[in-house]
Amino acid sequence: MIRSDIMRRLLVGVAGLAIAAFAPPAFAEDYVIENVTLVDGTGQPAQPNMSVGVEGDRITFVTPTAVAPRVSGTRIDGRGRFLMPGLMDVHIHLKGARGGDGRRMVGTDPKNPAGPPPMQVAADARIARAAGLEALASYLYSGVTTVYDAGNVPEHILGLRAEERAGKILSPRIFATGNIVTYPGSHGDSMALRIEDWARDKPKLLEYLATQKPDVVKLTLDEHGWGTRPLISLLPLDLMQDIILEANRHGIRTTAHTSSELRATEAIFAGIDSLAHPVIQGPITPEFAKLMGAKKTPMATTLTIGEGYSRLVEQPQYLDQPLYQASYSAAEIATLRNETLPAWKERGWTWWMKLMTPVAQENMRMIDAAGGIIAIATDQTLGPAVHREMELLAAAGVSPARIVTIATLNGARHLGMEDRLGSVEPGKLADLLLLDADPTADVNNMKRIVMVMKGGQPVDESKLPLAGGQRPRRMAAR
């Protein structure tokens, strides 16, 4: 009797194991966005009636809703809506420490003329941090989930980067350079680590890599003998190559400020990993477009930084748009209209940049058409500028569907993060944008935001410290 009972229990146990082995695994997603039209960022056509699962900070599944796994979790109804990756701006200079809003540069240290200039902290350094947080909020409110700061006061930007990564602030993902690196007298050397002699100055570079831990090292190669600027010294190419090689040996990508076809080509063949600006000094040759298509060196667009001068002078009504109203304070808008506008109207630089911006737009279109990688970037410190950047590409003849990829996956490629960011695919970080209109039909539809999700969490807009004041939370569910 005892033996038969033992046998019965063994048989039941074996049967249970067999059932467990063939049973489908149980899922428990945090969020499921279902019945949505998916624009995944890779360039493939929009896919209707899709479901996307999110667990923790990752995308777990992307599948037609009809065959989606039956899982628990908060369900977001995507009927009539469009899901795409979060936008990226791969060239900003976050406000707060530059331009007198909290900290200011006070010149070169006479004891270390080759080093970065010392910084003088304002009476209340909290002003700098608050200004930076407002700018970061403007990016999230505009649907931007990743930014790359291409040069800033290290204490300011690296401190905010640390807070963002610790989850202490509401912010897009922050990638940063800190101090840039260049030759004495070259573009941006007032905020740069200056390298003049490789044997002598290499230890300074190594200390910079170890202490600031830049996500990307930015160099400059620009003579400024164009437009209305004076000639300056150039970073020697052999020195540039040494710096690039050393950064890459530490697993760090590099980018270069250039503005001409010649300097961009030189930087590419010195080994640069990306280019921080378009060619704006003149039209590119078809051969350069083909070179960019062959080399696949990502190039940031940064069209709005030049176009912004004449836009304010001639079309100040753009400041009435909702994204700008949220991102600027009333005092900032008044200053732009009443002080900045008349000052820029009198500057030769404003009208030279108006003349050259269409040239840069066409250069970007040609590179994209040749198979090159261009990525949305503004060289500014405000979220709505990303949408203007996309409008300028559309005006140049780039299709809205291509611009979606340029604003998402190409940004990730620029940063070397395409395995983690930039498209809606299983395993990638859940940085998502839910819209109520088709972004592949009109770039302005990317302003029609229903929900921003960063790292698997919907953003509560009512908690964003926007300069324009509190905004209500957008509702993702109906």
From TrEMBL:
Occurrences of domain Amidohydrolase-related (ranges): 82-459
Keywords, in A-Z order: Signal
SUPFAM superfamilies attached to this UniProt entry: Composite domain of metallo-dependent hydrolases, Metallo-dependent hydrolases
Signal sequence extent: 1-28
Record has Signal as a keyword: yes
Annotated Pfam families: Amidohydro_1
UniProt-listed Gene3D superfamilies: Metal-dependent hydrolases, Urease, subunit C, domain 1
UniProt superkingdom: Bacteria
PANTHER family: ALPHA-D-RIBOSE 1-METHYLPHOSPHONATE 5-TRIPHOSPHATE DIPHOSPHATASE
Protein name per UniProt: Amidohydrolase-related domain-containing protein
Organism whose genome encodes this protein: Sphingomonas baiyangensis
